[in-house]
Design goal:
- By secondary structure, the protein is mostly helical.
- Helices cover 89% and strands 0% of the residues.
- The chain is built from three helices and no strands.
- Helix 1 runs antiparallel to helix 3 and helix 2 runs antiparallel to helix 3.
- The N and C termini lie close together (8 Å).
């Protein structure tokens, strides 16, 4: 049971990487808009797609940890 808890904690740890990545992407998008305000629409479009993909990584890690806790913990 102890190793399952450690594995679930490591799986949830993917949220930290996703958060850092989303912060970096957002800051670079702000810089890009500041440099080229006329490209704001295209930058926002690409940013939202990238943020969705990064967030899905965190969600997958969370789902894997829930699966580990409730199915393997019995």
């Amino acid at each position: 049971m102890g190793l399952i808890a450690i594995g679930a904690g490591i799986a949830v740890f993917t949220g930290m990487g996703a958060g850092i990545g989303m912060g970096i992407a957002t800051s670079k998008a702000c810089e890009a808009v500041a440099r080229q305000p006329e490209a704001t629409g295209k930058i926002n479009q690409v940013l939202l797609i990238g943020l969705a993909l990064a967030e899905s990584t965190a969600i997958y890690g969370f789902v894997i940890s829930i699966i580990m806790i409730f199915t393997m913990g019995k």
